[in-house]
Amino acid sequence: MSRRFAARDVALYLQRRLIRQLSRLAAARDRTPPVVPLPVDEVIRGSRTPLALVRLLEGRSNAERESAVARYLRARGVSFTLHPFSSDEGSGENFAVDLGAGERVLLLAAHHDAVPGSPGANDNAAAVGLLLSLIERLAAASPTKLRVRCVFTAAEERGYLGARNYVGDVDVGELAGVLSLELCGIGDSLVVWDAEGETPFLRTVSSALEGIGLARDASYHVVGRIPMFGSDHRAFVPLGVPAYGFTLVPSANAEALRQFVWSLVLGAIRHLIRRPVPFDTYHTPRDRRGTLEPAALALALRALEAVIGATT
Ligand SMILES: [Zn+2]
């Protein structure tokens, strides 16, 4: 690693820490009343749209979120493998559901934890709701030449701790690609991120999105590394697996978002005071189900089904 790179990494690390600190302070000052979670059994008995399933996790503690996912899967008769982990950094449980048949595996990840103090609706109950909906749909019509693995990870907010432990349990050779779903509940434009360089999987994703009528640099974007953000897919990168973030944003805010995610410290502080959607609620007590858009969730679901249909 060159010295210039090392200095840049240190700057990015400090920037991330500063932003986390500032977010925490902002959250502590926020007077938004806490979400009163719906009893898990009521959610299980209720509608299974992604938006309804957000309530499985919204407003619960991380321990409750984790057990709610397992309880939901058991109650719905979905078989899954349990991947518990425990280390100096913390402990938790990842859950993996395999659907379909074939040698290749498309892995879709959604973390079930949230930052303390945030109800965690867009980050990341929306993504969990999407995968749970997808499981229902795939159970009814499973792919015959591909296995889709939906992985619900723990402790993403602690440096992808759950995913970093989970990668030890995967057979790297069978993975066609990984998408980590983050912030999928607000917006009309898809962003595939951390996508540096062409890979067959990236080409598959792009052509799948174009196949459902999305246009590159308009209704979907492929971008490289985003300094302030990361997600579970990063745990797969050292294995040599093509692995990207999958997020929705409002296209009307494209320019503000670009500045927000790329700005260095001063810009970041300025933008923290007035953050563009969807980052205005990100990691705050205002990240609630009421801010989510059914059309965004529907687009994400359609896009994921297209990627499943195109992956071989
Ligand atoms: Zn997240």
Blueprint of the fold:
Elements: H1 3-29, H2 40-45, H3 50-53, H4 62-75, E1 81-87, E2 90-101, E3 105-111, H5 121-140, E4 146-153, H6 161-166, E5 175-181, E6 189-193, H7 200-211, E7 220-222, E8 243-249, H8 254-262, H9 265-273, H10 294-310
Parallel strand pairs: 3-4, 3-5, 5-8, 6-7
Antiparallel strand pairs: 1-2, 2-4, 6-8
Bound molecules: zinc ion.
The site of zinc ion has 5 residues, from helix 5.
Account of the protein in words:
With 312 residues, this protein is of the alpha/beta class. It is built from ten helices and eight strands. The protein has an eight-stranded mixed beta sheet. The chain starts with a helix and ends with a helix.
Key descriptive features of the protein:
single chain; 312 residues; alpha/beta; 8-stranded mixed beta sheet; 10 helices; 8 strands; disordered N terminus; binds zinc ion
Q: Helix/strand/pairing class, anyone? A: alpha/beta
Question: What number is the mean pLDDT?
Answer: 89
Low-confidence stretches: 1-5
As a percent range, the share of helical residues equals 25-40%
Order of helices and strands: HHHHEEEHEHEEHEEHHH
* Chemical compounds bound to the protein: zinc ion
- The separation of the N and C termini measures 35 Å
